[in-house]
Amino acid sequence: MPWQRWKKLIALALTAVLLPGCSGTNRNVSYLGDAELNYYKNASLTTEYAAVDQATPIDIVNSDRPRTIRDRTQDEIWDLSLMESIHMSIANNKMIRTRAQFLAQSQLLLNPALAPSIYDPALRQTGFLFGTRGVEAALADFDTQFTSSMLWGRNETIANSSFGTSPLFGLSQETGNFNAALQKTMANGGTVTLNHSMNYLGTNQPFTTYPSSYTGSANINYTLPLWGGSGVEYTRIAGPSGGGLGAITGVSQGVVIARINEDIALADFENSVINMVKDVEDLYWDLYLAYRQYDADVANRDSSLRSWREVKARMEVGATGGNAAAEAQARENYFDTRARVENSLASIYDLENQFRRLIGLGVNDGRIIRPADSPVEGEYLVNWETSLTEALVRRVELRRQKWQIKSLELQTIAAKSLTNPQLNFVSQYGLNAFGNKLISEQTSNYNSAYGTMKDRDLENWTLGFQLSMPIGFRQAYAQLRNTELQLTKARAALATQEQDISHELANAIQKLETAFVTARTNLDRRIASARRVEATQAEYEAGVRDATLDLVLRAQASQALAEIALFTSLVNYNKAINDLNYRKGTILDNSNISLGEGEWTYEAQQQALQKAWARSYAFRNPLLKSSPEDFSSPVPYPKTDLTWQGINGDDGLIPQPAPTGGTIPPAPGIEQPVAPVVPPQDETP
């Protein structure tokens, strides 16, 4: 019965608690004074704008309104050469632009963090996240780590024991703990650790020799991998191995792989620059063609206007060929040619705007760009074997893929090492300390903790081996197999890339030949069309039978089309030459563009010079492998499997390293000190 009563009381209490919740939270609350409603939002997610204060570029602020065909202002003509345009695009564009990005949802607008820029190689070099680390971040694994701590404490408790006349004893302890350690990872994967600790204990515990004492130690530890994940080669590729190989995190975190990734980033940057330079030259010739088409349309319009005036004059005097139908036809033809002129002018403005964007200029600075260079008209002779060799040696895409293959080759070596058990050599030697005082001149009876350590009274050492291995190595073999498959795929991709490049080169040569032959044919066509206009115009003016105005107008239109076709063929011919250089990978060389690293600081130059001289004077140890084998070259790797007749190593096809500019600094000494490099001075007003 008591339990039933308690259940009823609990049910009533819960009901009393829940009933107010059903009545809602609206209550009449009164406040003193008057206030405006603040801090209230009717939505948790609204459109907001970042508080970023960045100045707009000056060329945008000072830009005039865009040019249109209704704008009759006389702008200054800016005759710009092709080489100036290319160098201007290189100098002005920090973000690499391409022609296809214009008026499209490009990556530059949607996700600019992934758009190519001049900062990409430096961003890769300074990467620090897992999988995107640069060389400096990879070298950070070998930085000496220093740790230290100093802790004080006091603890008072009751000991469950009797001491003297008291049934319970109050135990009091004061502590102090000091720890310091230096740890260094070596290039061979070994780890050296120096640690020192000192602990203080002050207590009132009975039956102790010293109420206050110091204990500590100073140790040196050395651990060296001997089997799986061991050696300088593995450490350079995969980075220092962890404490165990059970959880494999990959073999691509070493310094060498980070350096290869930087070379891949450089190849990506160079490829972006190549695409931009190609687009600049193509757009330059398209703008040239737009001007030539405009000139041809203007000439055709003027001829149509003269013909209309002549027909109208004949109609007014009632002469032959001056009927109303002929006058209406001449009038219609004039307005048709006038519309073509307007469209040609609009095309010039459109292409000039695109060209300004591509070379990094504002919309309108009061000058209108006009190409100053004329297209090449001479025959461009191409040797298939030489061009193919250049393409297979110089194409950036192939260089990038070869770096990828080299990275996977090195990762395969490291992955094979992980299929072995982890066997570590471990060693430790240390000196223990104990004393009533931390430091004391009297070292007898353990009065000084550091005194016992100095006298090496208490020693400790450890020496042995540690072995750990998963039974079966399934994860390690899976990683090895995956890396080998990636390497096989990369080699197959390289072979396919070379085949595609050969087809691209063949297509470029075919287009080049077609454009040249078509240009010669269109030249003959223009000459013939000019003679046709002269003949039909003379017959019409002489009143020859069957010589009508329609024939004259058709001849004039044909002459304009022949003029446009000729310049179109010439432009296509020059664009074909540009495309051929692009397919061969020589477009930057033809534009006198080279990629190079910025100058080092004065301190870095001096330090590098001192280390270089120190290594130059060092004695060579035949038993010491101080430097790894070369896996790169400052010049393109020669294609020794291409042995066509007439091609050899001395024909200039394979570039050689450029000679070092200046003189080599002399060795340090008394008679010939190192000439200091003068650091740049800050210019002060």
UniProtKB/TrEMBL annotation:
Organism, as annotated: Planctopirus ephydatiae
Region (Disordered): 646-685
Residues in the signal sequence: 1-23
Family of this protein: Belongs to the outer membrane factor (OMF) (TC 1.B.17) family.
UniProt GO cellular component terms: cell outer membrane; efflux pump complex
InterPro entries found in the cross-reference section: OMP_efflux, TolC-like
Keywords annotated in UniProt: Cell outer membrane, Membrane, Signal, Transmembrane, Transmembrane beta strand, Transport
Record's keyword annotation contains Cell division: no
Protein name: Outer membrane efflux protein
Places the protein is found: Cell outer membrane
